[in-house]
Specification:
This protein has 205 residues and is α/β, with parallel strands linked by helices. The protein has a 7-stranded mixed sheet with strand order 7-6-5-8-9-11-10, sandwiched between helices. The radius of gyration is 16 Å and the shape is globular. Belongs to the methyltransferase superfamily. Fibrillarin family. It comes from Methanoregula formicica (strain DSM 22288 / NBRC 105244 / SMSP). GO terms for molecular function: histone H2AQ104 methyltransferase activity; RNA binding; rRNA methyltransferase activity. It is an enzyme of class 2 (transferase).
């Protein structure tokens, strides 16, 4: 990852969402992006130019645009029409973003245009976040990585954030993913946690 001093940045055309520029690089604000928050609060995954990424819950493309500055291609899935309009504009300015208007819980909708990816990233605020991630692991390469941005209050408001966090980790491990990092994203995002996993080369159950 690229840092100028202690500031996380990405090198690409600026002006996507009014982000600050620093030494001709785009400042990646952890308060605006949960992935940026992971790089400050934890370790995360090193993004590389040859990587292909499936991004679930692309929203208006804020984080997608930064990821696209680092990697070869981003398949960006978004379901809501209004954010998709913004995402299309972001994709117009970056030819390595493939916007897909589809339901992330139904990967068969975009399977015909997908290829195997190195990283599966999910930021979908739904109760079945873990199950959505698991369904999309079909696109993950052997030894591919997974990042789940868990909004604990969207999973079950009756349970404590800690309980939801623990149960989600257990579910991913039971599926066969190796959990390599799990961290809360405070102080940047309240009741949000990041779970980073690795897919075993022999596949998952």
């Amino acid at each position: 990852m690229i840092r100028i001093g202690d500031v996380l940045v990405s090198r690409g055309e600026g002006g996507v969402y009014g982000e600050r520029m620093l030494a001709s690089a785009r400042v990646w604000d952890p308060f605006r992006s949960k992935l940026a928050a992971l790089y400050y609060a934890g370790t995360g995954i090193e993004l590389a130019p040859e990587m292909k990424v499936l991004y679930l819950g692309a929203a208006n493309g804020t984080t997608v645009s930064h990821v696209a500055d680092y990697v070869e291609v981003v398949y960006a899935v978004e379901f809501a029409p209004r954010p998709m309009q913004d995402l299309l504009e972001v994709a117009r300015r970056r030819d390595n973003i493939v916007p897909l208007m589809a339901d992330a819980s139904r990967p068969e909708q975009y399977a015909p245009v997908m290829e195997a990816v190195d990283l599966l990233y999910q930021d979908v605020a739904q109760p079945d976040q873990a199950e959505i991630l698991i369904r999309n692991c079909v696109f993950l390469k052997p030894d591919g990585k997974v990042i789940l941005m868990l909004k604990t209050r969207s999973v079950d408001i009756r349970k404590s954030p800690d309980e939801v966090f623990r149960e989600t980790i257990e579910r991913l491990a039971a599926f066969g993913l190796e959990v390599i990092e799990s961290t809360w994203l405070s102080p940047y995002h309240k009741d949000h946690a990041a779970i980073v996993c690795k897919k075993h080369s022999k596949g998952v159950a």
